[in-house]
Amino acid sequence: MTAEGEEFDGFADNESRDTIALSSTTVDEAASFILWLRDAYLPAPDLIRFTSELAYERDIDTDWRIPAGGDHERVADELKQHLQAVVGG
Length: 89
What we know:
Blueprint: E1 10-13, E2 19-22, H1 27-40, E3 49-50, H2 53-57, E4 64-65, H3 72-87
Antiparallel strand pairs: 1-2, 3-4
């Protein structure tokens, strides 16, 4: 939960590689979480990488990077570009 009271559902794992997985999340919700994580907790925000369940299911193992700067719209656009590339449209 963020300081503003926004809640997210998922899990974190640091066994093999540091991973946070959000479940049942829209692009806008994921962008909000990423901004919170990037701006409040990560000293090197350009290291946030992501993928999607759909990419994983299609054996696409590329990690996309979240921009080190930018607002909600910029992060959401990056997530949408990822989905477009995975879907192929």
